[in-house]
Design goal:
single chain; alpha+beta; 7-stranded mixed sheet; globular; disordered N terminus
């Protein structure tokens, strides 16, 4: 009979991004975005598509997930008015996918949206991540075109 070993979950901390991290976060966004085959061509053709506005780092819109002291992902949430907020970006280091980092960032975004008074959280997402967002409670609302190509518009209504 095989012995069961307890799986050790990594220690994760969510914190506000720092302005000095801008380049490192853009590099993380680049790596995470290249995972999506539909986006790869546009990214390789024009690397300037990946841009993290400095104001998102100054105003607290960007939240970083650290796992065991290493930046593992980040998300940006922006109020859009009319009781809505947008999860404007969610990126996880590709080799760290599947460890709950994205889910933790979505939950944090949901809470921050709720605190800001939003009753709807919207995300524009790559086609390949539809199931992830569905598992996080989002519903498909439509499709749109982005600089990287076709994307999904998904929404989540506040549970409160």
């Amino acid at each position: 009979m095989a012995e069961k070993t307890a799986s050790k979950r990594p220690f994760m901390v969510l914190r506000h991004a720092r302005p000095a991290e801008r380049q490192a976060l853009e590099e993380l966004q680049w790596r995470a975005s290249l995972v999506h085959p539909a986006y790869r061509g546009a990214l390789l053709q024009d690397r300037s598509i990946v841009h993290l506005p400095a104001e998102h780092l100054r105003d607290g819109s960007a939240v970083v997930a650290e796992v065991d002291g290493k930046v593992a992902g980040f998300a940006i949430i922006l109020p859009t008015g009319n009781r809505e907020a947008e999860l404007d970006g969610l990126f996880v280091e590709p080799e760290m996918a599947g460890q709950g980092i994205g889910r933790a960032l979505v939950e944090d975004a949901r809470q921050r949206a709720r605190v800001s008074g939003a009753t709807v959280l919207k995300v524009v997402a790559a086609l390949e991540v539809e199931n992830f967002y569905r598992r996080c409670g989002f519903e498909l609302a439509g499709e749109t075109e982005t600089l990287l190509g076709k994307a999904l518009v998904m929404v989540q209504l506040s549970r409160d």
